[in-house]
Amino acid sequence: LSFKNVNYAIEGIGEPLYVFVNYGQDIAAEVAAAMETNPYPSKIKIGLVGGSDYQWNSPIQLNCPLEFMLAIPTGGNEVGYANIDASALTGPMIQISDNIHSDLLADNGFYQLGDIKIEGVRVKGLTQQLIYGNKVKAQYGTLALEQSIIEIAGGNKTVFDFNGGGVVEKLSINNSTIYGNPQHTGQLYSSQSGQKATEAGLEKQTISITNSTLYNIAYSKNVNTHRQAKQTWR
Predict the structure, then answer these.
(1) Full-model pTM
(2) Which of 43, 64, 117, 196 has the smallest set of CB atoms within 10 Å of its CB?
């Protein structure tokens, strides 16, 4: 097997953490175990095998950039999504940790957590947030969902939830599907009660949805709510 987009030349406070998860295992448990020996990685890369089945039974506590990598055969042919059962979750899939190294705290008062990229996964049974800012004053570059299918199994949780804290410069949903089964009565994205983007030095924020499908999401709710203070949206 080989992996796409592998790059180990990453500057940061620790070594990048690469976690290959075997078929049938709990992704969050494997990441937590790896972080016991590397608690402050410069980046976490999660390696999954397309077409394989996985569990996700507890929140990943994230304190650095994150990237999913999908294994492909050495011949170069894609083998489909990595299938993730999130039905056992009682908390968010990804929760921003309150244990962030002080070296990531910038002069603007925000922890700099870089980019988060989720790619090549098919998630089933999710009733909680996909990502939760957890009232942490953190700043993110691009939060990207690529080539993925996310089933929200009802409930009223915001999918990308930064309502309590955190500033995202760009939310990108590309070649992906997010759907409710049954109807989802939460929002797609919220930062309404979070920090102001202007406090992080941003003049604008971007939401980009391209070649994607949203179905049964934010039923009878605003799709997005934003904290606005003299910055522009596009």
Answers:
(1) 0.89
(2) 196
Per the prediction, the chain carries an average pLDDT of: 88
Where does the chain have alpha helices with state H? 27-35
Pairing between strand 149-152 and 160-161? unpaired
Other C-beta atoms lying within 10 Å of the C-beta of residue 73: 12
Provide CB contacts within 8 A for 44, sequence distance 6+. 16, 17, 19, 31, 35, 62, 64, 65, 66, 67
Predicted local distance difference test score (pLDDT) of residue 76: 55
- State the average pLDDT over residues 187-194: 82
Using left for φ > 0, alpha for ψ between -120 and 50, and beta otherwise, residue 87 falls in: alpha
- CA 106 to CA 112: how far, in whole Å? 7
Minimal CA–CA distance to 111: which of 63, 44, 181, 50?
63
E-strand stretches of 50-202: 53-55, 60-62, 66-72, 82-85, 94-96, 111-119, 121-126, 131-132, 138-146, 149-152, 160-161, 167-174, 177-180, 189-190
Encode pLDDT of 81-138 as tens digits: 999 999 999 999 999 999 999 999 999 999 999 999 999 999 999 999 999 998 899 9
3-state class (DSSP) for residue 178: strand
Which tokens sit at 227?
Answer: 């904290």
Residue 172 and residue 147 in contact, taking contact as beta carbons nearer than 8 Å: no
Tens digits of per-residue pLDDT, 192-228?
A: 766 788 888 888 888 999 999 999 999 888 888 776 6
